[in-house]
Write a structure and sequence with these properties.
The complex is a heterodimer of chains A (about 120) and B (about 140).
Chain A: E1 4-5, E2 9-10, H1 18-43, H2 51-58, H3 61-89, H4 93-119
Antiparallel strand pairs in A: 1-2
Helix pairs in contact in A: 1-3, 3-4
Chain B: H1 27-44, H2 46-58, H3 60-71, H4 79-109, H5 114-139
Helix pairs in contact in B: 1-4, 1-5, 2-3, 3-4, 4-5
The chains are: A mainly alpha (about 120), B mainly alpha (about 140).
Chain lengths: ~120, ~140
């Protein structure tokens, strides 16, 4: 049974992790569909694929907007995935905290870089 | 097979050197641990992936730097090493996406039987390696 401590704060329950579970799947579907979209756009290119054709795949405004959503999906997906790895192997708890903090810094830095690349496209 | 009558090994306080080497790994377990390994690999090599993407889309000149990484090399690494790392990334992406689709199929269909789990796990392992070989041959200029 769910027990409440303090002001109606449930500390046990079946739905913990449900949000991560959904985020992991929705972000995965977004990235998988984006992969297919990029592949299709590449297949539609006539002739050899050089710089112009490759950059052209990502340059339309709607494609940039979509790529931005994929960057968010990727960072969030990697965060949930890496956390589940640290939950399993990151022991003791102090070390896990350190690893999770480093993961957050790593992912936010990479996310910023990706957005920067997208910005000047 | 009378699995119930046979005493099964119990693992407590796992020893990496003696227990992990004798741990029974069905195909689904391989698919599962490689899903993790491939994800962690892409997480660790994210800066390389972004660098390559950055150079490939930013300008005509940077596109030249992108191409040169695979022939002349990058930083202290020779070109063939960059190709090997990118080949590992190609495998990681393919294995991760296929294992992910397998997860979604299992989530949606609720087909949790042993044979189905084994078949889909085998498909993920085989298809990801086959596609890696096809893309890898292109990467190393075999066709």
């Amino acid at each position: 049974m769910a027990t409440t401590y303090g002001y109606k704060r449930s500390v046990v329950g079946a739905h913990y992790g449900w949000k991560d579970f959904l985020v992991q799947r929705i972000s995965a579907i977004v990235m998988a569909l984006f992969t297919l979209l990029v592949l299709v756009r590449l297949l539609l290119v006539q002739g050899p694929i050089g710089y112009e054709a490759w950059a052209g795949v990502f340059s339309p405004q709607w494609m940039k907007a979509l790529t931005f959503a994929v960057i968010v999906a990727l960072i969030w997906h990697a965060w949930v995935g890496m956390c589940s790895i640290w939950y399993d192997y990151g022991k003791p708890a102090g070390l896990r905290l350190l690893l999770q903090a480093a993961t957050a810094v790593w992912l936010i830095s990479c996310g910023g870089w990706m957005i920067e690349v997208l910005w000047r496209l | 097979m009378s699995e119930a009558s046979k005493p099964r090994p119990e693992f407590r306080n796992l020893n990496v050197f003696s227990d992990l080497t004798t741990y029974r790994m069905p195909l689904a377990a391989w698919t599962s641990i490689l899903h993790r390994v491939s994800g962690a690999l892409m997480f660790l090599l994210l800066p390389l992936i972004i660098w390559l993407f950055d150079k490939s889309v930013s300008s005509e000149i940077s596109f030249g730097q992108f191409s040169a990484a695979f022939s002349a090399g990058l930083w202290i690494f020779p070109g063939w090493f960059i190709k090997l790392v990118v080949l590992a990334l190609i495998w990681a992406y393919l294995h991760h996406i296929l294992a992910g689709v397998r997860h979604l199929v299992l989530d949606v269909t609720h087909r949790t039987t042993k044979p189905f789990g084994r078949q889909t796990a085998a498909s993920v392992l085989v298809v990801s390696v086959l596609l890696t070989l096809i893309f890898g041959a292109k990467l190393f200029g075999l066709y």
